[in-house]
Design goal:
By secondary structure, this protein is mainly beta. Helix content is about 0%, strand content about 50%. The chain has a single domain, classed as TolB, C-terminal domain (Neuraminidase, 6 Propeller). It is built from 1 helix and 25 strands. The chain is globular. This is Gluconolaconase.
Length: about 290
Amino acid sequence: MEQVPTSVLSPEPCHLGEGPTYDVTTDTAWWFDIREGRLFEAQLGSGEIRVHALGRMASALGRVDAERQLIVAEDGLYIRQIADGAMTLLCPLEADNPATRSNDARVHQSGTFWIGTMGRKAEPGAGAIYAFHRGKISMLFPRISIPNSICFSPDGAIGYFADTARAVLYTVPLNPATGLPRAEPEVLLRHTGIGGLDGSVCDAEGQIWNACWGAGRIDIYSPQGERLRSLHVPARQASCPAFVGPDLSRLLVTSAWQDMDAAARVADPQAGRTFLLEASARGRAEPDVKLA
């Protein structure tokens, strides 16, 4: 496992850090503490960090435009005004099922937003992966236990997602113009050994950067599923990466202290912190989500 230059972006521990993304137009990183209903905002140039209370569990966002974000929350999709944080429900998502919440999500180059849901206690098969496409939500893949690793190849022709509970990363061909599947998913790789497949992001070359939950590392895979490198993360429960910075050359990694007792937290003192790794790679700017 490689040791790369690493710094702490935010020392504030997240119960369940997730959903990092980066707005290259404002040099701002965003991420969530799902369990505590908090949204973190970090101005990378100045180092200023703000924490916003959302009043509900939320897990991901997509930039709509300079004024608005689309927030993926436990009961639906909300438009959030960046200036004052005001949130307005756009459409419900499994709002009639209190046993589930949102989890991993990412915006496709077409503006379509892939969104995962899961059981609040990770009940087997309780979740699904949806597409928010041109103002409508449709189910793509049902009976998912823990949806993770949603990301897309640079040309938008391939989608990836994992079911952490099954230890499987899937690949699926997409229509690059819509971000919607053209065929059924196939198994790309089966994870073995310590840890599990958590959040992922693709770099500019199409390699898949996966946070290995429980193993304190980022694994980099080829599009064929071959593990190429592993980078150390100074918290055991690394949860999701995102490329950040004006040249998209640094890797923001969230983490969590979820399910750790007092002894485990003492043994893992940086659990829940948010890190910056010098990635020696280049990411891609996250696309805006299209509402209609």
